[in-house]
Specification:
The protein is of the alpha+beta class. It contains 6 helices and 15 strands. Helix content is 13%, strand content 26%. Strands 4-5-9-8 form a 4-stranded antiparallel beta sheet. A 4-stranded antiparallel beta sheet has the order 7-6-10-11, with no helix packed on it. It has a 3-stranded parallel beta sheet with strand order 13-14-15, with no helix packed on it. A hairpin with a 2-residue loop joins strand 10 and strand 11.
Length: 301
């Protein structure tokens, strides 16, 4: 069994003795296949005081008024017509209050675009897709395909949108929808619940993985944090298809995913397949580190 040990020193969130705020530190370590005891965790650099849980009840917070409901995404039924070249279903990336990125792959590779509209309107906007060819020599997969991605801009914060994917006039996917990010200030201020799905070490293609997927697939989330090791055993292109995109395809077209490189992803060409299948913020100081780490805001988080 794989273990990912998380130690969070909660005391740091309360500030120093002088009242100044201190960073909350999260130390994540992959302890491999050994069973981690308390002593092992200490040897790995964990302070036992940091992993002692106490139920202190809810924090005392000022009343910010009623909690706002997220916008309703009503786009009909997600539909993927038979007989097209769609290979990897559309998946959402890098959602912000004013933009969204949508990616997919196709074996036919024609002129492609995304057509989108705000929920409750009939005014569609079309955005042409950028493309990149992936042949079997590059991916060691079973067939050549083309990866497409589209950047949608000019969105309204905390709003619902419908979209569809079109190639050479043929609809590959329709009835899809998403929510732009909440800002937490200005006209979009106030309290709102943000629902996150977070897990890691998922990508072995097992029945357990699929059973877990079935549990959350019908739920409504604002964002999905994958904590790494999504493509066992070596983070190859075929393993991403089989153990990530195929299993979660009904989920990824409506909930944006924010992934993290795990040690398994790093086994193939320093995680190059990971870098090729995801479209993440480019914030690193060195060009060679772009998309290997990043940060993002959602609402007042």
């Amino acid at each position: 069994m794989r273990w990912v040990l998380l130690a969070l020193c909660l005391g740091l969130a309360c500030g120093d003795d002088d009242g100044e705020s201190a960073d909350v530190g999260t130390d994540a370590r992959d302890a491999g296949s050994d069973t981690a005891t308390g002593e092992d965790a200490g040897d790995a650099g964990f302070d036992a005081a940091c992993i002692t849980a106490t139920d202190a009840g809810p924090s005392s917070m000022p009343d910010s008024g009623p909690v706002a409901e997220p916008p309703v995404v009503d786009c009909g039924e997600a539909t993927f017509p038979d007989g097209t070249g769609l290979r990897r279903w559309p998946y959402l990336q890098s959602i912000t209050p004013t933009s969204a990125r949508i990616a997919w792959t196709s074996t036919t590779g024609g002129d492609s675009l995304v057509r989108f509209r705000a929920v409750g309107t009939d005014e569609w906007t079309e955005v042409s897709a950028a493309s990149e060819a992936f042949d079997t020599a590059r991916t060691d997969d079973t067939e050549d395909y083309v990866a497409f991605d589209v950047q949608l801009t000019g969105l309204e914060a905390s709003s619902a949108y419908c979209y569809e994917v079109v190639e050479d006039g043929t609809v590959l996917a329709t009835g899809l929808g998403f929510r732009s990010a909440w800002t937490g200030d200005g006209a979009d201020s106030g309290s709102r619940v943000v629902r996150m799905l977070a897990f890691g070490d998922s990508g072995d293609g097992s029945d357990n993985q699929r059973n877990l997927a079935n549990r959350f697939m019908a739920e409504d989330y604002d964002l999905f944090l994958h904590l790494g090791d999504m493509a066992y055993g070596d983070g190859t292109f075929p393993e991403f298809e089989a153990n990530m995109f195929s299993i979660y395809q009904d989920f990824l077209h409506r909930v944006p995913s924010w992934p993290t490189i795990g040690n398994h992803e790093d086994k193939t060409d320093r995680a190059q397949p990971y870098l090729d299948v995801y479209y993440l913020p480019e914030q690193a100081m060195r060009p060679e580190d772009q998309e290997r780490y990043y940060s993002f805001d959602y609402g007042d988080i």
